[in-house]
Write a structure and sequence with these properties.
The protein is of the alpha/beta class and about 270 residues long. Strand 11, helix 9 and strand 12 form a beta-alpha-beta unit. The protein is globular. The relative contact order is 0.10.
Length: about 270
């Protein structure tokens, strides 16, 4: 129904996935017995706060080959059975740090097995390699089934602090193990939607500077459709942005890319 309704109105429909999130903490007590996390409990992980010991959500381990196989199988099943126009993954790979920055992802046994097999990468590099291999495989397998289905990613808007030089903030390369610049530079996407969720004039996370930097990394000429924090213009937000800020960001996108480019809006509540 959703696909037919979209196509009848000249819209594309893209199926959106978080590849390795199995559930929120509140979900874990009521998983269906057929859920992959219930059928393969040895593959699931509960990140824990190093200080309190409390669990934060339920995840699959990207270092497990069976996890990657299952995730790819789910995505390609959707591609094969439905007339979707694209698939899309978000910025969640390994979990974000919690409020006190003390979250531990329990993949010690997986990493130890990798080392016993002769692997020499340090822990962070190994985690990044897990995600790199997944992204590359996702792109290749989707395009192998239906070359016209678009593959898109909306990573955290900053690759690393200092890139570009004016930018400071969260280091997704080091904390989420997401080497997102590599995926764009290698051309493992059809469109790229970095989450540029800051104002044009933000002193350390300028929308303008970040968009220009991502453009420079686009060696394979993929579509860049930046993500805008459009719901910040909603009256339901505390200290909402002006609508003019979002309109100016759209104009900046057109000026840097082309008048025929576009933006991806998060979320619908402002509309």
């Amino acid at each position: 129904l959703a696909i037919d309704s979209a196509h009848a109105r000249g819209l594309e429909l893209h199926a959106w996935f978080n590849p390795f999130r199995a559930g929120n903490a509140s979900d874990t007590a009521r998983l269906a017995p057929t859920h992959f996390a219930a059928r393969r409990p040895e593959l699931r992980r509960v990140p824990r706060d190093r200080v309190t010991g409390g669990g934060v959500g339920l995840w699959f381990d990207p270092g497990e080959s069976d996890v990657q196989d299952h995730t790819i199988a789910v995505m390609t099943d959707v591609v094969q059975r439905y007339d979707i126009d694209g698939i899309h993954i978000d910025d969640f790979f390994y979990p974000y740090p919690n409020a006190n920055g003390a979250l531990r992802f329990p993949d010690d046994s997986t990493y130890a097995r990798y080392q016993r097999s002769g692997g020499t990468l340090a822990l962070g590099d190994w985690r990044r390699d897990n995600i790199n291999r997944f992204v590359h495989r996702m792109y290749d397998e989707v395009k192998g089934l239906k070359p016209w289905v678009r593959v898109g990613i909306s990573p955290f808007g900053i690759w690393r602090p200092g890139f570009p030089e004016s930018v400071r903030g969260f280091d997704a390369y080091d904390r989420l193990y997401a080497d997102s610049r590599k995926w764009l530079m290698e051309g493992w996407v059809d469109y790229w939607t970095p989450q540029l969720y800051w104002k044009l004039s933000a002193p350390q996370q300028s929308y303008r500077d970040l968009l220009a930097w991502w453009r420079a990394q686009n060696h394979e000429g993929r579509n860049i459709w930046p993500g805008n924090y459009t719901s910040r213009a909603s009256a339901r937000r505390s200290a909402p942005w002006s609508v003019g800020e979002l309109l100016d960001q759209v104009q900046e996108t057109r000026a840097q890319l082309s008048p025929n480019s576009g933006n991806v809006h998060f979320s619908m509540d402002a509309f």
